[in-house]
Amino acid sequence: MIRLHKLSKRYPDTGGSALSNLNMEIPSGAMGFVIGHSGAGKSSLLKLLAGIEKPSGGEINVAGFDLTQITHRELPDFRRQIGVVFQENRLLFDRSVAENVGLPLEVCHVRSADIESRVRAALEKVGLGQHFDAMPQQLSGGEQQRVSIARAVVNRPSLIIADEPTGNLDRKLAQDIMRLFWDFNRLGTTVLVATHDVDMVAEMEMPILELQDGQIVHNQFSEAVVL
Fold this sequence. Notes:
Layout: E1 2-11, E2 16-26, E3 31-35, H1 42-49, E4 57-62, E5 65-66, H2 75-80, E6 82-86, H3 97-107, H4 112-125, H5 141-153, E7 159-163, H6 171-186, E8 190-194, H7 198-204, E9 208-212, E10 215-219
Parallel strand pairs: 3-8, 3-9, 6-7, 7-8
Antiparallel strand pairs: 1-2, 1-4, 4-5, 9-10
Helix pairs in contact: 3-4, 3-5, 4-5
């Protein structure tokens, strides 16, 4: 599912190196956490995996796509394989819940007749089927994050990447969100979550990838058994 070889990321405007010489493999169907101190490189790694940024060197292969060589024509197919969830839910508050969830399908030119059924299915999966026509501002913070998860999975991706998805939520809501990710993983989706929440990491007892100053210092995915 994910393979990195001597991957690096530098930001010329700051003169710094966010990631240096990363080598790892994460198998299809795995679920686990990316941890590390602020500035360790977690967000940079996830942006590279999602194709949001380009690496400065090395190789990166995600869901069968070589992201160092990917063409503009291949990008839509790659993005259909990836669902991304951010700490800030990034919903459009001038559009309904259904319209927010359906955006990735519109971008991929899915037929309108299919969009509604797939949006309804995604909202049902996250427990928000009754809010199809609601506006985001009518929902709680936890519900808004569930909408962003529905948006991330509506394309039926093979990989979900989540960057601090529970950072703005209380403990119970955070646990609810992690259970949703667990449910998708049990259906075969690979899930990678970056977090500062060491208590949640300890509770879930899943593999971790620990970054420190842009390098991997601990990788339990190499020891993990995927069910």
